[in-house]
Design brief:
The protein is α/β, with parallel strands linked by helices and 413 residues long. Helices cover 38% and strands 15% of the residues. The chain is built from 14 helices and 15 strands. The longest helix is centred in the first third of the chain and has 21 residues. The N terminus and C terminus are likely disordered.
Length: 413
Amino acid sequence: MTSSADSTPYVAIACGGTGGHLFPGLAVAGQLQTRRGRVALLISPKDIDQRALTTTQDVEIYTLPAVGLQNRNYFSFARSLWKSFFAARGIFKARRPDAVLAMGGFTSASPVLAAKEGGAKTFLHESNTVPGRANRFLARFVDEAFIGFPEAAARLPARKISVTGTPVRPQFFRDAGRPASAADCRAALGLCPDRATILIVGGSQGASGLNEMVLSVLPRLAAKGWQWLHLTGANDFENVRAGYAARGMKAVVRPFLAEMDLALGAATAAVSRAGASSLAEIAALRLPSLLVPFPAAAENHQFFNALAFRNSGAAKIIEQKNADPGKVAELLVELVENEPARSQMQSALAQWHAPHAAEWIAEDILNTIARTGRSERRVSARRGGVASDDAPSERRSKPRSQNFGVNRPEFIA
């Protein structure tokens, strides 16, 4: 590999596969650019990646031939992993990155291993309470792991772990927590500005189980006069749109919406899956929500994400198997109409908001690059602390607080 042609830090971010990996990666990319770093994004061929990046500027974008491990497709998964490794190695041979950040998922492993082979610094971010298989594998190889939930630390065999929270994109921070007024957001989406709005979102690819649950609840709520913003995913779009039309209910139905700041800003309450990135955005906008964890999520991680929110009073939770229409309707009425309960939930959501997560991650990466450049001696890292070139290591424990917005987190011991 050859070094970068100039002294500008060059960081590759592997962040494809789902919006939960992509959007936090984009947030970090923006902070790196603000600090005069150059960024390359390594993504998957999936539609979510390609669509979401159509408006991304001033970054290099590379598509890796990676596929996820699903339905025991071991052969195709292994083949794509091998091909992705050689693709990443070719990309890095043309221009060696100073660092690589993996955001989790099936696009992460190959770039980190290829970068490690070439001597770059390596990092990962784990946004869930229960780390995914790719990050558990990679953790032993990286220089530092960043985590969204403190609970994840015990499951990652990394030498150095920092609690940062999960990055969200800057458009979620305008006007102290709302991208614009709720009325403005609703008008921009074709909704009535002054009507209570329920957002249904199943993640970046939709959720058939969630869509069916909501359709079953509509007859019980038709008299409420609410309006609905329903993001269905591609497969259920026509069926869901027909369901609202048959009941004469005001609804904007989309298969996908890139402007999630508008969607969340328009909502009075949300019904959502419990991916970590979605929860971070919900927390940023203090949106009262009913969480319905995806029952087939790896190691049931969405349930544990949602449980952390519920236990702190930041959300309601119902498992899909227990989603009786009457109970769901009751919970939604409380989220929309019970003002004291809404206020308490919004206060609880504040502790889950990590407004500086992307900034902290970017600074740590750039500081590590700068420190490496000043000395040829390797800075060794141990789990729970850092050993400098000149001093013995010290173990520094991070208080197990989830109030990310107050002080910069230290290292998990």
